Amino acid sequence: MAVSKPAPGVIRKLDEVVVNRIAAGEVIQRPANALKEMIENSLDAKSTSIQVTVKQGGLKLLQIQDNGSGVRKEDMEIVCERFTTSKLQKFEDLNSIATYGFRGEALASISHVAHVTITTRTAVSKCAYKGMYSDGKLKEPVKPCAGNIGTQITVEDLFYNITTRRKALKSPSDEHAKVVEVVSRYAVHNSGVGFTVKKHGDSTADVRTPVNSTPVDNIRTIFGPSIANRALAYYASDHGLYSIYLSYSRALAYYASDHGLYSIYLSYSRALAYYASDHGLYSIYLSCSRALANYASDSWFVLNLHKL
């Protein structure tokens, strides 16, 4: 007796909303991921002050305020659509890209899994403009309002429409700690920018760094003097890179859990570490960014703090 085979499944094109929410889940996995994308947008906008406000670990409220270049009113309609960006126009621009992001997916992804409000003002604008977004689209026409030069992005009810993602997250206190960690790392890497992060309603900030500081100063502010006193800043002027040396006796690429610091993992295919036995020195070279550091004794290992 012949065994009947199951009928083939019907191939259907997924609804655009479903596609966008799936894509958003790949980019935005938790509040800290959303904040990372928004911080990079602020840095790309040449901000010197970035303030972050968090409620319930960023699930109820995640707000970032910067003093960067702002968004033009004419661009407000499409700012949350996928693949809309001011950072490149043609494929060849990738050869000289100098920004953190360029694809134009961050705000779009966030708007598909949260309620997003953007208030922004450019230097040439007489007032600010506010727009509210859902699923990448404006919910109503942009309205003029009061506001400082720069951009404020308010993200509310993150993952309100993806209950499985929301349930998979840790407690609000754990998510808040991850948000603070992201701000701390960018503050050390971008010492010329002042960073602040605090819980909504609190008067005391979890992290506050001044403008035009140094990486070591920010390490001292965030992680305390005991670790900062063992750090030496090395500035490679030829390439504009900072490296931080910390006296630990473990491997180069590791997580220093005692102090909450991450090293840069030397997992690049073009990374080369060698030992100069005649001088007892280690040198680390990355061909993509030249020599990052050239000194580390037996108990001193390097943390490259150029980019996350």
TrEMBL record:
One Pfam match, given by its short name, reads: HATPase_c_3
Concerning SUPFAM superfamilies, the annotation shows:
ATPase domain of HSP90 chaperone/DNA topoisomerase II/histidine kinase
GO CC terms on record? Answer: MutLalpha complex
Question: Which PROSITE patterns has this protein been placed in?
Answer: DNA_MISMATCH_REPAIR_1
Task: Provide the coiled-coil residue spans.
Answer: none
One GO biological process from the UniProt record? Answer: mismatch repair
Q: Which CDD domains match?
A: HATPase_MutL-MLH-PMS-like (cd16926)
The record's GO molecular-function terms, alphabetically, read: ATP binding; ATP hydrolysis activity; ATP-dependent DNA damage sensor activity; mismatched DNA binding
Listed transmembrane segments: none
Report the sequence similarity comment from the record: Belongs to the DNA mismatch repair MutL/HexB family.
Under what name is this protein listed?
A: MLH1
Lineage, highest ranks first: Eukaryota, Metazoa, Spiralia, Lophotrochozoa, Mollusca
